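Postdoc handover notes: sequence design on the structure in folder B. Input tokens:
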């Protein structure tokens, strides 16, 4: 891989850099939003700004509203977002998972109807996969879809549905044939969250916020036209979505981690340990340097994942390597932050003495979920063992 920029890539970078300089909100990390909903409204308007500038979904094909960005342009995009300290986008699930799934498996009518709203953040998406008795073993899910004329009648419960409270639409997977082996009777459908019979209940997390929800479906009518792919072939569609989740979600994370490690290095110069700046403490220095290097490794892994997607059109099981790496790295990074900040690291946003408005106490607690969401580390290791290393199946 040649990492030097071609004249065209340099033009792309300069155009993006100039755009970000004039459009990126400043000091947004220190916003004191009253609620997660208010913060979300801010991220939504930021995505709209990116969309209006032609910068949302840059890896999507041009005919679907993207830029058809090359591998290098995607790398440049995330580097420049990090450089500008730009906020993340609101419609993470729509842009990174549902949109690519509709592009790969959807009908022309679905593409025309749903893709523009995903890019502009006019319609926010959630992912209704996990159930109380089906997480790692997704194919064991029990939510039920019965055909009734030109609609499916859906009954069941989903759980851990991120952004369920904000979502206009849900990519839902249900069992449409209970008589066949479990992987063969599933169907993926696009469900309007405002349909009668959909009930969303927030779940409170240890961070104090309710990022995810339980969603109940009672006799919810979903048009057959909203089925993605073929009826009873939803397993392949779901795996496509999960591969995108694992392969591409890390891209935005890398921006955050780069900013966080740089901020920790800056803090280490002012926070004192034993009467000297912590940055002079050899143990702290070693840990920060190790973490900085790992964030660069994450970037290299990311490029490998992008490379795979640009060559084959779909992410591969290598996405599991990336998933384990970013989730465990964030836990290490947040641990170092706690060691550096001491008791200050535990102060929440409401405390006037909190450093960076409580971002470190929140970050430490939120990072615990990283090794569970998008497939646990154990499951990712099983996938790598079998599909990447060719070891016998362990489950
Ligand atoms: C922050 C967060 C956001 C989430 N957002 C969403 C969302 O938007 N939509 C959605 O559908 N889901 C979402 N999830 C759910 C997530 O996908 C599941 O929690 C995850 O797949 C694990 O499933 P489970 O919780 O049922 O645990 P289980 O599957 O019950 O696993 C329990 C434990 O057993 C281990 N285990 C299970 N099977 C095996 C095996 N075969 N080999 C080795 N170990 C095994 C697991 O690693 C884990 O440690 C989210 C979760 C979190 C934490």
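Designed sequence:
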């Amino acid at each position: 891989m040649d990492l030097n920029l071609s004249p065209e890539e340099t033009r792309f970078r300069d155009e993006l850099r100039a755009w970000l300089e004039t459009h990126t909100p400043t000091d947004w990390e220190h916003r004191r939003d009253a609620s997660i909903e208010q913060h979300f409204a801010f991220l939504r308007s930021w995505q709209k700004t990116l969309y209006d500038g032609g910068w949302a979904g840059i890896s999507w094909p041009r005919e679907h509203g993207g830029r058809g960005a090359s591998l290098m342009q995607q790398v440049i995009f995330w580097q420049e977002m990090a450089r500008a300290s730009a906020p993340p986008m609101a419609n993470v699930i729509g842009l990174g998972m549902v949109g690519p799934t509709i592009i790969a498996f959807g009908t022309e009518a679905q593409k025309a109807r749903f893709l523009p709203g995903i890019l502009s953040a006019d319609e926010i998406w959630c992912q209704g996969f996990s159930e109380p008795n089906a997480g790692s073993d997704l194919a064991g899910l029990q939510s039920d879809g019965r055909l009734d004329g030109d609609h499916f009648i859906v009954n069941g419960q989903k759980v851990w549905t991120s952004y369920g409270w904000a979502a206009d639409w849900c990519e839902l997977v249900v069992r449409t044939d209970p008589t066949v082996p479990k992987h063969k009777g599933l169907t993926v459908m696009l469900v309007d969250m405002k349909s009668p019979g959909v009930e969303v209940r927030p779940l409170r997390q240890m961070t104090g916020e309710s990022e995810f929800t339980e969603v109940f479906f009672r006799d919810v009518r979903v048009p057959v036209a909203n089925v993605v792919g073929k009826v009873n072939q939803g397993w392949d569609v779901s795996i496509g979505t999960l591969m995108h989740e694992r392969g591409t979600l890390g891209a935005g994370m890398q921006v955050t981690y780069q900013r966080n490690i740089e901020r920790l290095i800056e803090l280490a110069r002012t926070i004192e340990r034993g009467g000297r700046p912590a940055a002079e403490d050899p143990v702290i220095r070693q840990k920060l340097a190790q973490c900085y290097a790992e964030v660069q490794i994450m970037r290299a892994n990311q490029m490998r994942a992008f490379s795979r997607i640009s060559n084959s059109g779909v992410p591969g099981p290598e996405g599991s390597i990336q998933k384990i790496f970013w989730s465990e790295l964030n836990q290490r990074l947040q641990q170092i932050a706690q060691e550096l900040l001491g008791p200050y690291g535990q102060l929440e946003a409401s405390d006037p003495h909190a450093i960076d408005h409580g971002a470190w106490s929140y970050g430490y607690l939120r990072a615990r979920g990283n090794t569970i969401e998008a497939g646990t580390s154990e499951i990712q290791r099983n996938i790598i063992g079998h599909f990447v290393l060719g070891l016998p199946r362990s489950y």
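Context for whoever picks this up: The first helix runs from residue 7 to 23. Don't rerun without checking with the PI first.
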